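hi! just following up on the protien thing from before. the input was this:
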Amino acid sequence: MKIAITSKAFSQNSQLIELISQKFPDYKLNLSGTKLNEDELIDFISDCDGVILALEYISDRVLSKSPKLRVISKFGVGTDNIDFKACERYGIKVFCHPGVNRHSVAELTLCMFIMLIRNVFTSAVKLSNGVWLKQGGHSLYGKTIGIIGCGNVGVELIRLLSPFGCRIMINDILDRRLICQQYSVEQVDLSTILTEADIVSLHVPLSSETRNMVNSDFIKKMKRNSLLINTSRGEIVDLMALKSALLENIISGAAIDVYPVEPPTDLQFLALPNLIPTPHIGGNSREATIEMGVSAINSLCKYFYIDEN
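and the predicted 3d structure came back as:
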């Protein structure tokens, strides 16, 4: 079996390369350093039996040009880049791995909470430029946190917040009463989160319902001194609306790890003093990269009846 790996992180990780070479000696890595477009993806996987897929989009056209392809194993957790109906039509098995990087993403989210609310980022940048500005912000302890989307990452974030004595509200399309009972949190409507939360954190998948969910109307409903965090999917936030809100101090600040187009090109937006921008590193800790890669390889082993050990 020939396996294609589109993930840049996987292709640069010696431990994962050693493992894939042991299980599937006939493999190819994406060494371009970039996300493959549709034509590049077709050229890359057309002669392969399986693919470990990162952010590239699997469309009907891609599958129609990949006659040998039998299985897709996702590197990471997002599945909005896979046309599942097309996969079903072509008889392609898809393996997904929910929650595989939840610890890494939740850790970065908590980091962003503290960096924003304690003014760590702004004061550090100023001091690196020789400006001594001793403004320590506010304590996270006791604040009201709104978590929109309470799946694997949302639950892990709740667990990490437990020592901070926060009031935690969640909003989810599913009934999360068991989570509420286990962690003493409240499931509320979206309006309650926007009007009461000091920090609003986004952890929803990308769908037609969540695309540009955070727009100017959404932001205007937030508390004036509140903060917005997005470590989920870039297309969930209308960045022009967020940029205007930060420039006009409609909210106090934001931290963004994901963007509709990566890398982002609006340097004015990235340089805003009340914004912490990071380059999509939420699920990119070394440990998370290994776990995502191993999970993806193990799924292929399962499909091809190869010993995982």
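The first strand starts at residue 3 and ends at 5.
Residues 199 and 227 are 5 Å apart (CA to CA).
cheers
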